[in-house]
Design a protein that fits this description.
heterodimer, A: alpha+beta, 2 domains, 3-stranded antiparallel beta sheet, 8 helices, flat, B: 119 residues
Chain lengths: 317, 119
Amino acid sequence: MPRDNDIDHANANVNSVELGNGSCSTGIDNGNIQQQHLDVPILEATLVDDTNDPIYDATLIWEPNSTHNHSKAKEGLIRTKRLQRVVGTTAMLLILILGAIIGGVDQTIDNIVLFRVSFGIILAIFGCSQLFVAATLHQNRNNVLLELYQPVLLALFSIAGAMATFASFMFALPEYDISCALRQPVIFTCFTFMGNVLMARSWTIGMCTNPTSIEDINLDDNNKTTTTIDRIRMRIIKALSRISRLGRLISSCGKDKSIGSASFTDTMLVTLILMIPQIILQSSISHYQVLERKVKKYMKVYMYANQIQDLLFSLLG
Amino acid sequence: MILLPILLALVLNTNGEGAIPDQFREFDEVVSSLFVSSCIIVITLPPATMVRDQVPEAYAYLMSAAVLGFTLPWRYFLGWKSLSRSYSSIDVGSGYDSGRLKAAEDSICSKRWGNEIRH
């Protein structure tokens, strides 16, 4: 391949110049060459000498240092990166300033309002960042590599995290009964949901990669090749498969009894069924708290009534 | 009760030699996020219980830090890392990994094909 200098010193004319769009291959990621169709300008030129014989024909693709040949993708990328940097830096500075404000708060009424506002903004920043991740995951759910990570479930996972973050604002409102009653159930339920999503994702991957071996394996058979941890894993996966079958049976009103592979619906059914104990526990605790408060209230009324009765008796008698 | 599904997920993600194929594991990510979460919870929860009655604001701040310390590492290690990994591998046009992106851009931009016909 000749150097540029060869062309510069040649006594030559440009015979034909053709400008168009084309595609090129980019060698990226672990040596896998991937064909990427980019809308890049291509300059095709042929150099000829005095007798019109061609000396050199060249195809030039997208000059890197040229300011004119920036594609839309590159411009968009630069803009996105700048925006990310600006938003990230502003959020970090804001968090630092609000943290300093919270640190200087003492217990006067105005300062409590200031604390709540600052605290709310900090939580909103973190919650919104989690929602942004969830939205981006959902937006790119058809991305080939991201499909392996089950992006929709990951988005739900991120949304649960955002809900827990927003719910922790209720710690700053201790004077309201409703905030005291709700904060623990909401946060704990979100945490449990996150754990269940992780478990259901692992189960789905196990079922998708090798469903027959998981269904057919005999756990009572003391095979020496399987370790204890492996046997525990098999038991968990089998239990989850049974829960999935149960969920399918319930959702189809007892009609569907087939053993299928783990689809998104099955995974969600497993997650929701696993949520039931935590929901029951949290709701019973909340009801107990409400009940306890009511009993205390009635006890107080009963005590007042007794006191009035005693007073009346003492007055009368 | 809260930790049970997370621990079971961790057991499912461990590497084994048996019938379950050990592909697509996220064991390292789960362990890293659990480690960070537990560190933050160990730091924040004891002072939160200590200042609960004296300074309610500090209690609120520390408790929410514990909640954030639990959710944000999970979100980062599982959600954000998966997203950025797939971005840097496939979507060159809007990638996040600047190093890889630069290499990919260079491979596109600086390519020149030429056929020498006659000297």
